[in-house]
Specification:
It is a single chain. The chain is built from 39 helices and eight strands. It is mainly alpha-helical and 737 residues long. Among the domains are: 171 residues, no CATH class; 73 residues, no CATH class. The chain has a five-stranded antiparallel beta sheet, sandwiched between helices. The protein has a three-stranded mixed beta sheet with strand order 2-3-4. β5 and β6 form a beta hairpin. α2 runs parallel beside α5. The longest helix is centred in the last third of the chain and has 21 residues. The radius of gyration is 41 Å and the shape is elongated.
C-alpha cells in the first residue's frame, strides 16, 4: 500500500469577509445595519427593529430620532420579498405615532405602501401595509394622498381577504377615507357595499363595528341608501338589532337605520315587513341609553318628510316618544324632545302628544341638563303653535312661573316661546306685541286677563250667549274656499256663530248621501260608462213610458220610500259635526288690499306710517276732537254690531266707530301685512297705541350721518298721523286719561 497523502484545504477567497455574529443591545447599531448591502442583514435588522418598536411609543420616538425611517422607506420597495415584508411590518407598527406619521407624509410614502397591497404580495405585507394606511388616514392630508394615488380600490379588494387582520385594517382605513365626499362617491362606483355587508357577518366584533361605522357615514348619501336597500342591507341591520349578543353593535346599527329612514321608500318597506314595529318596540324596551337616544334621532330624521310622518303616526310613534321622555338618560330625553318637535308638523301627531306629552315636557323644564331644557322648551312651542287645545300648557307654565321655588330661566323662556306662538293669549296676558309678533288670521283681542286665568278659545267664545261684556275683536281676512258651491254659500250666515266647513267636507257629505241610495242597476249602468245625469234622465223617461202603458201603481210607494231615505240621510249630513272656522272678514281684506295700493308706493317709512295712520282713522270714524271724545258713541255702535250678529265676537272690519284700542289693533294688523314694523301696547281704561321706530333726518349741512332710530307713539285719534317721541309730554297725554 502506498503512503496516504493529506489533502490540502483551499483557503477562503481573499475578497470574502469571514462570517461575523453580532449581539447588539443598542438600537443605534441595528439602525446602521439598515444601510447594509446584504439582504440577510437587512431582513434581520428590520425584524429586530419591529420587535423593539412593538414594545411602546417611546421606542418609536427613539427610532425616529436615530434616523431609522428614511432607510426603512427605501426597504419597503426592496426587491427581496423578505426584506420588503419585514420593512413593511416596521412601517405598520411605527405609523401609530404622530411624529412618525408627520415624517412619513413629508417623505410621501403612501404610493410605496399602496403598492404593497398588490395581489402578489404576502398576506403579512397586506396586513401591515393596510395598517400603516389606516394610521395615516386619520389626517386629512394623508386621506387626500391615499385617494388621489388610487389606494381605495386595493383596500376595497382586501375586504374579501381570508385574513381577518387585513379585513380589519382595510375597513378601518376606508372608514377614515369616506369622511370625505369624494371617497364616498368612489365607494359606490367601486361596488364596495356588497363587500362591506359581508363584513357584518364576521365573527370578529371589531370588524363588524368598523363596517357599521363606515355605513353610518356613507349612508348619509341617498344614492348609497338606494344601493344598500337593493342589496338587502336592511335585513342585515335588523338581524344585528334582533340579536342580543350583538348589543355592543346596536348603537351603530341604529345610526345606519336612522339614515335609511329618511327615504320614504325605505320607510314603507320597513313598515310593510313589520320592521318599524320592531324598531319602536326595541327603542321602548332597551335599557341602553345610547340606543334609546339613537332611536329617537332616527325618528327625528325620518319625520322631516310628510309621508314618513304619516307612516310614523300610523304606527303610534307618539307613545314611543312619550315613553322615551320618561327615561333616566338626559341624552334620550333631549333626542325624544327633538323628535316630538319634528313630528309636530303633523296636526294628528300634535293632538296625540297633547294629553301625555305636554305634562312630561313641562317637567323637563326643571331638568339640570341644559340640552334637555332647551329641547323641551322648543317641543312645547311647536306643540302649542296653532293648537288651542294644546295651548293649555300655558296654564302649567304660568303656575310654575308664579312659584318662586319652581321658576327658572327655561320655564320663563318656554312660556315666552309659547306666548309668541299664541299671540291672542300674549296680548291678553301681557298687553304687548312686538314688531316681530306678526298678527295672523284667527287672532282675537279678548281684553286684559290676569296671569293664571285661562283664556277661552275663539270657538268657545263664539258659542257663548250674547252678554254685556267687552266685545271680542276678531282678525280674519282669510279667504273662504272658492270651490264652495252657490248652494253652500247661500246657507252660510255671517253672524259669527254659523259653523263654516271646507268644500271637501261638504262634498264628501253629499257624496255619501247620494251614494247611499244608488241601486244595483244604476251602479251597473254607471260602471259601464254612462254618466249619473244621463242615467237619471233615462230612468225618468222609462218610468214615464211605463206609467203610460198602465204600469202597476206599486212603483209610487217605492219612489216615496226612496225619497224618505234621501231626506233622512240629508238630515244626518246636516247634523254631522264639521270643524269650526272663524267667519271671514271681507271688509278687512279690502282694507289690506287698498292700503297696499295706497301706502306701499310711498318712498319713506315715515310717509308710509303717517299715511296708514290716516287710513285707519278714516275707516274708524275719523279724527276726534280731544274735548269731544265723550260724545264719540263707539260703545253703542259696537253693541249694535253684537246684537246684529247675535254674538260677542265682532270682526274688526265691521267696526266703523273705533276708539284707541280698535284703531291701534287695526293699524298693527295692516302694518304687519304690508311690511311696516310696529308694536302694539295696551294701556289702562281702554287706551292702546302703536310704537314705531324711525330714523330722524340728518342735521342740515351734515351728509352721511347715520343716526340711531327713535321710538315714536302714533296718534290715531286726535291728529291721525302725528308722531310723538316716546317719553314726551304729548305722548304721555295720549297714553293716559
Amino acid at each position: 500500500m502506498g503512503k496516504k497523502v493529506k489533502k490540502e484545504v483551499e483557503p477562503p477567497p481573499k475578497d470574502v469577509f469571514d462570517p461575523l455574529s453580532i449581539e447588539s443591545k443598542k438600537a443605534a447599531t441595528v439602525v446602521l445595519m439598515l444601510n447594509s448591502p446584504e439582504e440577510e442583514v437587512l431582513a434581520k435588522a428590520c425584524d429586530a427593529i419591529y420587535k423593539f418598536a412593538s414594545k411602546g411609543d417611546e421606542n418609536k420616538v427613539t427610532l425616529l430620532g436615530l434616523g431609522a425611517v428614511e432607510p426603512l422607506f427605501k426597504l419597503v420597495s426592496h426587491e427581496d420579498p423578505l426584506v420588503r415584508r419585514n420593512a413593511t411590518m416596521v412601517f405598520g407598527i411605527m405609523a401609530s405615532n404622530n411624529d412618525v406619521r408627520k415624517l412619513l407624509r413629508e417623505l410621501d410614502v403612501t404610493n410605496s405602501v399602496i403598492a404593497r397591497l398588490a395581489p402578489e404580495e404576502d398576506i403579512v405585507v397586506h396586513e401591515f401595509a393596510s395598517l400603516c394606511l389606516a394610521h395615516m388616514a386619520v389626517e386629512y392630508t394623508s386621506k387626500v394622498q391615499i385617494f388621489e394615488q388610487g389606494g381605495l380600490e386595493p383596500l376595497i379588494r382586501l375586504l374579501s381577504s381570508p385574513d381577518p387582520d387585513v379585513k380589519k385594517n382595510s375597513v378601518e382605513c376606508i372608514y377614515h377615507l369616506v369622511q370625505d365626499f369624494q371617497s364616498r362617491a368612489a365607494v359606490r362606483e367601486l361596488n364596495a357595499i356588497p363587500a362591506l355587508l359581508e363584513l357584518l357577518k364576521s365573527e370578529y366584533p371589531v370588524v363588524q363595528l368598523l363596517a357599521l361605522k363606515t355605513f353610518g357615514v356613507i349612508s348619509n348619501d341617498r344614492e348609497t341608501r338606494i344601493i344598500l336597500r337593493e342589496n338587502q342591507g336592511l335585513d342585515h341591520l335588523f338581524k344585528i338589532l334582533e340579536t342580543k349578543e350583538f348589543n355592543d353593535l346596536h348603537v351603530e346599527a341604529l345610526a345606519v337605520v336612522a339614515n335609511c329612514l329618511e327615504d320614504v321608500d325605505t320607510m314603507q318597506l320597513i313598515q310593510q315587513t313589520g320592521g318599524l314595529k320592531k324598531l319602536l318596540s326595541f327603542a321602548e324596551m332597551s335599557t341602553i341609553p345610547d340606543i334609546q337616544k339613537n332611536a329617537a334621532k332616527a325618528i327625528t330624521k325620518a319625520a322631516y318628510d310628510p309621508e314618513n310622518r304619516r307612516i310614523l303616526h300610523e304606527e303610534e310613534i307618539e307613545k314611543c316618544l312619550v315613553t322615551l321622555l320618561g327615561t333616566d338618560n338626559d341624552g334620550a330625553k333631549a333626542a325624544a324632545s327633538q323628535a316630538i318637535s319634528a313630528m309636530c308638523e303633523s296636526l294628528a301627531s300634535k293632538d296625540a302628544f297633547g294629553i301625555q306629552g305636554i305634562p312630561q315636557l313641562v317637567q323637563l323644564l326643571s331638568s339640570e341638563n341644559e340640552e334637555v331644557k332647551e329641547g323641551a322648551a322648543i317641543a312645547l312651542a311647536n306643540l302649542t303653535t296653532a293648537s288651542p287645545s294644546n295651548a293649555s300648557a300655558l296654564d302649567i307654565l304660568e303656575e310654575i312661573n308664579l312659584s318662586t321655588g319652581r321658576k327658572n330661566n327655561f320655564s320663563e323662556g318656554a312660556l315666552e316661546k309659547l306666548l309668541d306662538n299664541n299671540l291672542s293669549q300674549k296680548y291678553s296676558q301681557m298687553g304687548y306685541l312686538s314688531s316681530s309678533n306678526i298678527i295672523t288670521d284667527g287672532f282675537y283681542d279678548y281684553g286684559q286677563v290676569k296671569p293664571g286665568v285661562k283664556l277661552l278659545s275663539l270657538e268657545e267664545l263664539n258659542l257663548q250667549e250674547l252678554n254685556d261684556h267687552r266685545a271680542i275683536i276678531l282678525v280674519n281676512a282669510k279667504l273662504p274656499d272658492v270651490s264652495l258651491s252657490a248652494e253652500d254659500k247661500s246657507q252660510d250666515r255671517y253672524d259669527g256663530r254659523t259653523t263654516s266647513s271646507s268644500s271637501s267636507i261638504r262634498k264628501s257629505s253629499k257624496e255619501r248621501a247620494s251614494s247611499a241610495v244608488v241601486s244595483p242597476v244604476e251602479e251597473k249602468q254607471e260602471s259601464s260608462g254612462r254618466s249619473p245625469s244621463s242615467l237619471s234622465k233615462s230612468s225618468t223617461r222609462e218610468k214615464g213610458s211605463r206609467k203610460g202603458k198602465g204600469k202597476k201603481e206599486e212603483e209610487k210607494p217605492k219612489d216615496e220610500e226612496e225619497l224618505q231615505t234621501i231626506s233622512k240621510i240629508q238630515q244626518e249630513v246636516i247634523l254631522e259635526k264639521v270643524p269650526w272656522l272663524p267667519p271671514f272678514d271681507s271688509i278687512l281684506l279690502d282694507y289690506i288690499m287698498d292700503a297696499s295700493k295706497i301706502i306701499l308706493p310711498l318712498t319713506t317709512t315715515k310717509e308710509q306710517v303717517v299715511a296708514l295712520a290716516q287710513f285707519v282713522a278714516d275707516k274708524m270714524g275719523g279724527p276726534i276732537e280731544r274735548d269731544k271724545l265723550h260724545e264719540f258713541s263707539w260703545e253703542l255702535h259696537i253693541s249694535e254690531i253684537e246684537f246684529e250678529l247675535k254674538c260677542n265676537v265682532v270682526p274688526i272690519g265691521k267696526i266703523k266707530k273705533g276708539t284707541f284700542y280698535h284703531r291701534a289693533l287695526l293699524f298693527k294688523v295692516i302694518a304687519d301685512r304690508i311690511g311696516i314694523g310696529c308694536s302694539l301696547v295696551r294701556g289702562e281704561y281702554g287706551r292702546a297705541w302703536n310704537e314705531v321706530k324711525l330714523v330722524d333726518d340728518s342735521p342740515q349741512g351734515i351728509t352721511g350721518l347715520l343716526l340711531p332710530p327713535q321710538v315714536y307713539i302714533l296718534d290715531l285719534m286726535y291728529q291721525p298721523g302725528c308722531l310723538m317721541k316716546q317719553g314726551s309730554a304729548e305722548a304721555d297725554h295720549y297714553q293716559r286719561i
